[in-house]
Amino acid sequence: MGRKVFKTSGKQIRSKLSLISSSLKANKQNYKKRIALAAVIELLHSATLVHDDVIDESSIRRGQKSINNLWSNSHGVLIGDFIYSKAFILMVKIKNLKLLEELSFATNDISKGELIQLDAINNIKIKLDDLLKISYYKTGRLFEAAAKSAAYLIDSNLKYTKQISKSAKYIGIIFQIKDDLLDYQINEKKLGKPSFQDIKESKITYPFYFAYKNANIQQKKTLRSFLGNKSINKSKSYKLIDSLNGIVETKKLLNEHYKNANFYIKKLEDNKIRKEMLELLELAILRDK
Amino acid sequence: MGRKVFKTSGKQIRSKLSLISSSLKANKQNYKKRIALAAVIELLHSATLVHDDVIDESSIRRGQKSINNLWSNSHGVLIGDFIYSKAFILMVKIKNLKLLEELSFATNDISKGELIQLDAINNIKIKLDDLLKISYYKTGRLFEAAAKSAAYLIDSNLKYTKQISKSAKYIGIIFQIKDDLLDYQINEKKLGKPSFQDIKESKITYPFYFAYKNANIQQKKTLRSFLGNKSINKSKSYKLIDSLNGIVETKKLLNEHYKNANFYIKKLEDNKIRKEMLELLELAILRDK
Fold this sequence. Notes:
Two copies of one chain form a homodimer.
Chain A: H1 2-5, H2 13-22, H3 31-56, E1 60-61, E2 64-65, H4 67-70, H5 73-93, H6 97-119, H7 128-153, H8 158-182, H9 188-191, H10 197-200, H11 206-214, H12 217-226, H13 234-243, H14 246-267, H15 271-286
Antiparallel strand pairs in A: 1-2
Helix pairs in contact in A: 2-3, 2-7, 2-15, 3-5, 3-7, 6-7, 7-8, 8-14, 8-15, 11-13, 11-14, 14-15
């Protein structure tokens, strides 16, 4: 079972963030705990992915069959719970109450984000604020918690804790906006998973949101007809959304968050950490899958 | 949402166990933490119920519509996660690492029990040992953790911790065996929920297990035909299972565990706690819903 769940590893960007953040005061004594925390972060992420796939009825994850597809939705629910509780066991062993508090708040925020997203399905009246809230809770929050809990682990000062947490938070939001953008990619092979999933699942993300905002009555009607259409014509829908500035406005939003991330990363005093965070920022924004 | 989930409260036997266990050293200082822990236990239980209902595709819970029935399976998965993480937030606030460790192990064991049960569906070759493992992990484990974490909360001695935990564990297993027995009740009104659910879901529990063990080839064939039959004839199937000692052997098993529970409860030195634990034991074994 474990072999199936962890066969493909993903980008491990969250655990990297955790390790970078705790590297400020790396030493022999905290080595094992730093690694344990990075593993906890990756396990928490895996647990949410397994539950996500049940919710989205996804058949593919990281280029492989998803758990719910391989066995059943019931397995997806329970294996997600199992991984989550394993993460819980591991994090308690680190014996740091502030770290535990941060991770408990973060996991709650993540499920809040997923619930907001679920109720946003098919909701063409959704506001930009809600979309940003979803991006933060669903994705930015665990990036932030990865860095913040690692800062607590090494008992760093308030200033560093804030700078590294904010940097991580914005990298996470960028990661999610980019994810929404990549889903509008016509070339699936490059992406390694089916594209246009959001629109097929009636999920309104940034490109659709901006296009709809700029559309006339007739175009709005066409856009609405795309939602939930499993056999959507990708080129046709991309063309319309692109012509209504859905792609370019999403890229603009990405750029604004890039500035936010950059603002905090540039403040980091440690040269190595600043450099590594900038690299993660580039990875988040430039990745093509 | 919260109103729907917590509209009906259930028996709250697990939180009672926690409060009884921590009552050994109740004082003004630990009052709030004792209550918080009882709430955590009840939240953990609620989270597993919400996920259970998704897995079993149950439409009714505590006489009301279940979450998955009211909204969707996706809501069931996410609301379960939300409640679980709320429990996690609350338990971290108690600031007791031993308590956290026990609860982390328990939640992991619970999901293990659910997974074993899932893979036991339709498995007529299941062993009594597996059924007992399911009863312990799925139910006894949280009863045990409720008492044990409460004993850690008040920093009680090893002897008391062991006695109260073992007592709680066996009450939990009894609770589950009784639950399996009640599912074979023909009168649904008395039960407050649909009966014969286990057999309809191809779930092999004690009454079926014992009956099958005692059946001849023809009877075995008939018993197998009951599994997964949504329009099962309750009187007919009850009659066969009863005639093959399925009910009486389950009651015998119940009695053995009653002796185990009693053995540990009788050792408890505090009169009030011993009396309250005996009352819970009676409730677990005598309840008719």
